[in-house]
Every structure is written in C-alpha cells, then in structure tokens.
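testing teh design pipeline on a random one, pls ignore if ur not involved
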C-alpha cells in the first residue's frame, strides 16, 4: 500500500533593525521588535491558525490521515512572544496522536557546516523544546531547508535519530525514484526519505500560477497524479514551507479549501494512506543505498548551497560568525548566548545573496533590506558590536579570576623607647 508523507517547514526569523556603525558600542538592540511582531501576527492570522484549523478537522474526520512538521526553536520563541495561540493550535494537533514533530537546529542554522559542537547543542535544545511543548522527543530529522550529505547522516545516527528527510535531487538519484525509502551510504541504521520534487512544487510553487497549463489545481487532480504513481511507489514525500497555506498562496486562491479536500481525495483510492516520517521507516524497508558526498538542499535553482554561501559577502559573514564559536561556548552571559544563536539563523545569509535578490525571492519571505549589500553591512555591524560585548565579558571574567594582591605591606613594628 503506497503512502503519502507530508512534512512542512515552520520557521520565522527575528529580523534586524537598521543597525549602523553609530550604534556600535552604544546600543546593542539588534532586532526590529515592531516589524517582528507585525509579521508574526500577520502569519498567525493568514496562515498558521486557519491552516491548523483545517488540519485538525481533517485529522478528526479521517483516521488514515497524518502529517508532520519541522519547527525551528526561534519560530516557537516568536509564537510564544507574539502569538501564543499558535502554539496552542499545534498542541491540539499533537493531541490527536497522528502528528509528528521532526528535529532540526534550534535557530534554523547552517551550524553543521561550521561547528559540529554548536550543531549538536542546537539540535538537543530544539528536541528538548519540542518534547516540553508537544510531549514526544523527535526521532526524525530534517535539516535547515533539507541541507544534507553523508556526513550529516552519520552524525545523526550517532545522535540516535532513525530517519532523515532530504531533497530527491536528480543528480543523486539518477534513474531511481524518490518514492521509496533508502539507506544513507554513511548510516546503515538510518532510513532516508527523499522529497518528490515535482509533486511538492505543484502545490508549493505552481498552485497560484495562472500561466501554468494545469491551473487551477484541485485536490482531485493532484490526488490523481499521486494515484498514477501507485505501482512504482512506497512513500511519496511532499515537503514544503507551511507558508504556502495562506501567505505564499492567499486564502482567496482556494489553498485552504485544497488542503481540506486533499485527505479525502487521496484516500478515495483504497490503496493509499498517510504516514509520518517515523511511521514510514517502520512500515517500509529500504530498497537501496544513496550516496551524497556533496551537500545538497531544496534550493529551487540548483539544489546546492549557493543561496546561502554563493557570494564572498556571505562567506565572509559566516566565517566571521563561527570564528567566535569557541569563545562564546565558554561564556556564561545568557544575553550573549541568545544573540549568538539568533545570529546563526540562515535567513541572515540568504538576505545577502545576489542570486536570491536578482529573482526578488518569494513574496511570503521578502528580503527586509533594499539590497544584499545592506544586509551584509548590517550583519557585520551587529557582529562587531557583539564581539565588543563578548570581549567585555571576557575581560570581566579575567579580572574576577585573577589572584588578589595584598593592598599594603606588613607594617614594621615600632621600637619601644625606654625613658
């Protein structure tokens, strides 16, 4: 029986304010609280709350329906700060018992590429937060925007994960289909689920494209495409940004109606059902090994890392950031530790991409800066101020730990004079 595995990225970054050289050493407030609050409330009203309401009704109506989410820790921080009702809506989904929350890095970062210690720390932090909020520790993993290679799989196996999700890139699969469970070449005890790119893009990208020859896309039409692959599929993995439900594709496009009708349309074919990533791993045996020596991602223009690391500005910024990792790790200042985490959010480097800027980026995740150069300058100004604060904390720690010297010499005894 073939299955559909739905997994959605849920991530909201903290946006920088215009931070200039005149702020350095004077003001260490880096984030734009007003913009962050407005963006979060808008996302909650247009996307998270209505889409979660649709999914909750589907989960109650269809016993063979299931879904999974990859939620960054900073998204949970944003929900808690600006829209706590969103967390409550995800908790209601979790209570159905048919929703899985996969692990990722806490700040949706590129930490694995630059600091394995920081990567492990962030993954453990995100897992603890997910367990505290939703009751279960994640056993499946999806890295930031499906960034993956053999080394990542090996590291995840050591951390105890059972399943990893990644991009079904053609240059990796060759003649093989993404619609099966595989084993990572470097992690024989793990299962690898690969995204069906075409079907994911049909909903995530082409749904609102009036020039597409298949527009408008209905749930029945999409289900028929899935059903047509039944004879050559075990698991069809549909992975995308949850923003597609109300932000990238607005409510007036019918996207919420599409989501509501999808489970019934898929389950109309009795051969089909839905699974979470961990269920897919238990139900289906791997059909082969997949070797991914070079990093890949779900970036639409090459499945590589150039959206985050394709320019000298991006590389300079991220190298400067992770050069501070060891110094920050021994720091006990909670404010510095929090800021260092948020500085690692991949969106900061995405905003510096000339490749990304030239295509204007998705409407639901616009570049908050006028151009990638402003994004780079702002980030480097923030990082310079952060390093000043780090140095001040280090100096204070040195002074505190330095041995104290006697403030005065021992007074000499005054000789007694006999009269």
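output:
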């Amino acid at each position: 029986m073939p299955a559909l595995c739905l997994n959605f990225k849920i991530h909201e970054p903290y946006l920088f304010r215009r931070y200039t050289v005149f702020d350095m050493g004077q003001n260490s407030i880096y984030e734009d609280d007003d913009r962050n609050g407005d963006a979060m409330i808008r996302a909650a009203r247009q996307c998270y709350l209505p889409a979660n309401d649709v999914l909750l009704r589907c989960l109650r109506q269809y016993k063979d329906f299931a879904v999974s989410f990859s939620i960054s820790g900073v998204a949970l921080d944003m929900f808690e700060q600006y829209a706590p009702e969103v967390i409550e809506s995800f908790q209601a989904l979790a209570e159905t018992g048919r929703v899985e929350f996969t692990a990722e890095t806490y700040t949706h970062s590129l930490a694995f590429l630059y600091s394995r210690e920081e990567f492990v720390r962030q993954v453990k932090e995100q897992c603890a937060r997910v367990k505290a909020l939703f009751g279960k520790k994640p056993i499946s993993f999806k890295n930031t925007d499906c960034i993956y290679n053999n080394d990542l799989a090996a590291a995840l196996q050591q951390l105890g994960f059972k399943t990893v999700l990644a991009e079904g890139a053609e240059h990796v699969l060759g003649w093989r289909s993404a619609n099966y469970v595989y084993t990572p070449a470097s992690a024989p005890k793990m299962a690898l689920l690969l995204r069906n790119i075409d079907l994911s893009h049909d909903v995530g990208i082409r749904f609102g494209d009036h020039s597409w020859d298949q527009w408008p896309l209905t749930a029945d039409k999409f289900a028929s495409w899935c059903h047509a692959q039944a004879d050559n599929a075990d698991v069809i993995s549909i992975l995308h940004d949850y923003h597609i439900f109300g932000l990238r594709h607005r409510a007036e496009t019918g996207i919420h109606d599409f989501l509501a009708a999808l489970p019934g349309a898929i389950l109309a074919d009795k051969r089909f059902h839905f699974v979470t990533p961990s269920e897919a791993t238990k139900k289906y045996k791997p059909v082969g090994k997949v070797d991914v020596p070079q990093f890949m991602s779900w970036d639409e223009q090459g499945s590589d890392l150039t959206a985050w690391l394709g320019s000298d500005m991006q590389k300079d910024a991220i190298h400067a950031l992770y050069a501070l990792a060891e110094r920050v790790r021994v720091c006990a200042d909670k404010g510095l530790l929090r800021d260092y985490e948020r500085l690692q959010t991949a969106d900061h480097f995405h905003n510096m991409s000339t490749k990304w800027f030239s295509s204007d980026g998705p409407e639901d995740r616009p570049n908050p800066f006028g151009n990638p150069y402003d994004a780079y300058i702002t980030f480097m100004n923030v990082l310079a101020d952060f390093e000043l604060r780090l140095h001040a904390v280090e100096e204070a720690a040195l002074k505190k730990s330095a041995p104290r010297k006697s403030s005065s010499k021992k007074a000499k005894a005054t000789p007694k004079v006999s009269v």
